[in-house]
Amino acid sequence: MHITKNKQFTQIKPEQDSVKDFFTDFMNRYSEFKNEHLLLDFSEKINTKIQDLFLFLDISTTHKENGTSFVIICQGIDIDDIPDEINVTPTFTEAVDILEMDAIERDLGF
């Protein structure tokens, strides 16, 4: 996994061949970035399926409860098929926009 950190968020890109392998590695290292705003970038990953993204449902919910953002960047996924608890966007720019909207909602007390 390739990790890039800046002041606003941590971007993580998988280097594994499967989302399930990435998920295992991600969970083993989760304590390193559990309190950070996370962008999981699957934009270069081919054949990511909706079922693969469901692996991250609990983490997404936990992040929101802890006041941090969790966004998955993934192209070719019908957003209407994804539960509201998981933020999925097709581009990096939209993912950053989600982070900004989450910050505004937290500031307003939502």
TrEMBL record:
Top-level lineage group: Bacteria
Protein name: Uncharacterized protein
Organism for this UniProt entry: Lutibacter agarilyticus
